[in-house]
Amino acid sequence: MSKSRAKKKQRRRSRAAADVRAGRDAADVRAPVRAEPADERAAARPEQRAAARAQASAAQAPAQRRPSRLEVRAGVPRPDAIWAPFPLTEIGMAVGLVLFVLGFFSSRPALFLAGVGVLVVVVAELCLREHFAGFRSHSILLGLLPVTVVHLGVVYLADATWRGPLALALDLAVACALAWWLQRRYVAARLAAPR
After folding, report:
1. Global pTM?
2. Which end of the chain is more exposed for a tag (fewer CB within 10 A), N or C?
3. What is the pLDDT of residues 13-38, one digit of tens each?
4. Per-domain residue ranges of the chain
């Protein structure tokens, strides 16, 4: 065997080893090489090497996962709670739901009201966090919630006669004003949110 053939064979082996390291199939490496004129081979090699490097880096890079609407909404990421990654919100929802169902089916008003109270607190915290981070608007719910709590407090603790069209009109006016203010705060938070 001549020295030039031995050198060519050695170069092919080193290229094959580099291609295997770069992640190519052995079948691609062993494929017969088409004979090309020397000037075409010289022009094609840099492009082939660049393509091989790009394929190797793409194979090594982890696949980018597209976030769902539960994680990112219109480019705004879902805000984490201050106790994250501990699932306190989810645990609170589960406890509130169990108390609600037990109180409903066992005819125990204390359990039922405890379940409602836990669910209201947990859902209000989640809605406030999402709303003021610009993730999702909860203007109407957050506007009605304090009005409802104050109305129930007035009826059960102070004046049981606070009802009728005047009470409803006042409650709706305050809830609408709160919802309008909350919507403005949401828009400002959405514009200022990191994307």
Report:
1. 0.58
2. N
3. 777 666 656 655 444 445 455 554 55
4. 83-133, 135-195
Please write down the HEC assignment for all residues of the chain. CCHHHHHHHHHHHHHHHHHHHCCCCHHHHHCCCCCCCHHHHHHHHHHHHHHHHHHHHHHHCCCCCCCCCCCEECCEECCCCCCCCCCHHHHHHHHHHHHHHHHHHHCCHHHHHHHHHHHHHHHHHHHHHHHHHCCCCCHHHHHHHHHHHHHHHHHHHHCCCCCCHHHHHHHHHHHHHHHHHHHHHHHHHHHHCCC
Name, in order, each residue with C-beta under 8 angstroms of 140's C-beta and a sequence gap of 6 or more.
175, 179
Residue 163 contacts residue 149 (beta carbons within 8 Å): no
User: What are the tens digits of pLDDT across the range 49-74?
Assistant: 767 776 766 656 555 666 565 677 76
